[in-house]
Design goal:
Helix content: over 70%
Number of strands: 0
Shape: elongated
Oligomer: single chain
Order of helices and strands: HHHHH
Number of helices: 5
Distance between the termini: 84 Å
Strand content: under 5%
Mean pLDDT: 87
């Protein structure tokens, strides 16, 4: 075998090796991209369902707080049952160990279900809507960040969470 044939063989070997390495790298990158896309789609679906549950719960709470008389006590009882069912559904969407958002939403849902005062119930509904809006804004910010930069680090997630907690507290105190 002469030098030209050896160089050709080395060139083919290097090209083949680089092709295999490139194939493996792209396969892993594609797999990771598909994973992120799946998680993003699931988060979007989760947000949509949570918003719908909170919307239905708030509507039922407002409807329920508009008073009842003995004439429509059976109707009021059905609305109360719907309210409790929707409140439980919301709790199932949330994490019991969350230190802020989920804990606050669960507490407001409980307050709404337990209060007998319609003015208090409507005030709690307003607070629930506001905190839910901030939670959705936080989740959307996280989704956009992940779409742009891939999986977020724990530090980045905490920074994003703290940023929206601060925004919510400022809104609440305004």
């Amino acid at each position: 075998m002469n030098t030209t044939e050896e160089l050709t063989l080395v060139g083919i070997s290097i090209t083949l090796s680089l092709g295999i390495v490139n194939l493996i790298y792209n396969f892993r990158k594609e797999k990771h991209g598909n994973y992120i896309n799946s998680i993003t789609s699931a988060r979007i679906s989760y947000l949509k369902e949570l918003r719908l549950a909170i919307s239905n719960f708030c509507g039922a709470a407002i409807s329920n707080s508009q008073g009842s008389s003995e004439d429509n006590s059976r109707f009021h009882s059905a609305r109360d049952k719907e309210l409790k069912s929707l409140g439980t559904l919301i709790k199932l969407f949330l994490t019991p160990t969350d230190n802020y958002w989920d804990k606050e939403i669960q507490q407001l849902a409980d307050n709404i279900m337990l209060t007998q005062n319609s003015i208090e119930a409507i005030a709690y509904v307003g607070k629930l809507i506001t905190i839910s809006q901030y939670l959705v804004m936080l989740e959307w910010a996280g989704i956009k960040e992940e779409a742009a930069n891939g999986e977020l680090s724990i530090i980045k997630k905490e920074e994003l969470n703290n940023k929206f907690i601060e925004k919510y507290k400022n809104h609440k105190n305004a």
